[in-house]
Design a protein that fits this description.
This protein is α/β, with parallel strands linked by helices and about 500 residues long. Helices cover about 30% and strands about 15% of the residues. It folds into three domains: about 50-110 and about 235-390 and about 450-490, Aldolase class I (TIM Barrel, Alpha-Beta Barrel), CATH 3.20.20.70; about 120-225, CBS-domain (Roll), CATH 3.10.580.10; about 405-445, no CATH class. Helix 2 (about 100-110) runs parallel beside helix 6 and helix 4 (about 190-200) runs antiparallel to helix 5 (about 220-225). The longest helix is centred in the C-terminal third of the chain and has 19 residues, at about 450-470. It is globular.
Length: about 500
């Protein structure tokens, strides 16, 4: 810790203190628990000249090269989004509400996806334009590979062509003539891929090997591959996480997921500080699966000690900060997220464990603040649900704006999906006490419709936060981060004006 303000950090609700090398408060001591909008980063003297000199690699054992995790929510993380997250260095957590055989298939699918190229979106020639527009918007850099039922490649339709075609027109009728393709063997590295796209004046193209489509590539995607390091396992395959609940034969489920190739296991429940969770963690830990074991959610240091003693290596932190969560208003239970992360991360580091900050992020600044408070990664839910790669189909509202539906994991919709195999009476009993938002429209940002666009925005902001603190990596950022406390007016002052003067 540097000389400026060596005050010990004391939670207003707890008597525990820590002298670990962590962020400092700037000439103040908080009088109450804080959330992200209550605090800000104070710039420090820095010798970091560029954002590209910063490493965002996590230190939680998951192999992630950026500190972003997509939440195990049905409306957020499906196989496609999980693969995209790993391709750019993050980690996607498949939700526990998927049936075990579906989880198995999803894990194996992610592990089989290309690293350097994007997964092709494939449709039959008789699929309509309207069908295609439920999957992707008509933007540059996107497209659809058209195959017959027998697997014969017919060509591709670039997404912008969907905007002017008749909704009921079959894709086979609007195929281009000779579609340019890229030979996978010519793409020896990401820079070569980008140069090929520029030389051929292509924004989107199928990638083939011996005449077989093995992926697709956009110019922006090729550029991203030069900037991000994929999160891959020892065999060079994309990493993926999966969640399981804490009831039933948790050990058997964990073994089944491990057999499918899962890289990180997440034991998840709304109230992680309970005996059933501790028993479930211990049961999985005894299997010695040699994989990071995540458990939560909790908000106190004492819960961290219990859950790590049971065998968890990563603790998921956050009760009530999520956009789809009504826990605090329904039950009064929870804790402001910044203080929760600050206290739990300090406790976890003492025990050789790590923390994921789960929920409450609305802007890149919030991700940076969570990392400053000690999180190894930040879990994002609703923010990612309004993207092309998220599960669900694109819908259009009355004004023509694109959106996807999102819902909380304790909502009626989620409960009905989770227990759809129960008899009607038992399902009705569980549904009666559901809480949370069952349907919310999350609109696609026209400028950032892809989860990759959001990753670009978030990591750009976080990299800059590191440079302001004079930090080249996550450990230095935790040590050097200087945090101030602000009023609501101070927070509003930091927002850009939505209109001109």
């Amino acid at each position: 810790m540097t000389q400026l303000n060596r005050n010990r950090l004391r939670s207003p609700c707890h008597t525990e203190t820590t002298t670990l090398k962590i962020m400092r408060f700037y000439d103040t001591t908080p009088a109450n628990d804080l959330t992200y909008s209550d605090v800000f980063l104070v710039p420090s003297r820095s010798d970091v000249a560029s954002r590209l000199d910063v490493s965002l690699a996590t230190d939680d054992g998951t192999g992630a090269t950026i500190p972003l995790v997509s939440a195990n929510m049905n409306s957020v993380t499906g196989p496609n989004l999980a693969a995209t997250m790993a391709r750019r260095g993050g980690l996607g957590v498949l939700p526990q509400d998927m049936h075990l055989q579906d989880l198995d298939a999803a894990i194996r699918w992610v592990k089989a996806q290309p690293i350097l190229f994007d997964t092709p979106l494939e449709l039959a020639p008789d699929a309509t334009v309207a069908h295609a527009l439920r999957l992707i918007p008509p933007h540059e850099g996107l497209g659809i590979v058209v195959r017959t039922a027998a697997g014969e490649y017919l060509g591709c339709v670039e997404a912008p062509a969907l905007a002017t075609a008749l909704p009921h027109a079959p894709l086979g009728d609007i195929l281009k003539g000779a579609v340019a393709t890229i030979d996978a063997d010519d793409v020896t590295d990401p820079r070569k891929a980008f140069d090929l796209m520029v030389a051929a004046d292509l924004d989107f193209a199928p990638v083939t090997r011996h005449g077989v489509v093995v992926g697709t590539l956009s110019r922006k995607g090729a550029l991203r591959s030069t900037l991000y390091t994929p999160n891959v396992d020892g065999e060079g395959r994309l990493r993926v996480a999966a969640a399981v609940g804490i009831n039933g034969d948790v050990g058997a489920k964990a073994k089944a997921l491990a057999a499918a190739g899962v890289d990180t296991l997440v034991l998840d429940t709304a109230h992680g500080d309970q005996e059933t969770m501790l028993s479930a963690v211990a049961a999985v830990a005894r299997l010695n699966l040699s994989k990071p074991l995540v458990a939560g959610n909790v908000v106190t240091a004492s819960a961290v000690r219990d859950i790590t003693a049971a065998g968890a290596t990563i603790v998921k932190v956050g009760v009530g900060p999520g956009a789809m969560c009504t826990t605090r208003m329904m039950t009064a239970v929870g804790r402001p997220q910044f203080s929760a992360v600050l206290e739990t991360a300090a406790a976890a580091r003492e025990l050789g464990a790590a923390v994921w900050a789960d929920g409450g992020v609305r802007y890149p600044r919030d991700v940076a603040l969570a990392l400053a408070a000690g999180a190894a990664s930040v879990m994002i839910g609703s923010w990612f649900s309004g993207t092309i790669e998220a599960p669900g189909r694109l819908e259009t509202d009355e004004a023509g704006k694109l959106y996807k539906d999102s819902w909380g994991m304790a909502s009626t919709k989620a409960v009905q999906d989770r227990f759809d195999r129960l008899e009607p009476y038992e399902l009705a009993r569980k549904t009666l006490f559901a809480e949370g938002i069952s349907s919310s429209r999350i609109y696609l940002d026209p400028q950032r419709p892809s989860v990759e666009d959001l990753i670009d925005m978030i990591t750009s902001g976080v990299r800059s936060s590191f440079t302001y603190a004079g930090a080249r990596d996550l450990a230095q950022f935790r040590d050097r981060a200087l945090i101030g406390i602000q009023s609501a007016a101070g927070y509003e002052e930091g927002k850009a004006l939505p209109v001109g003067w």
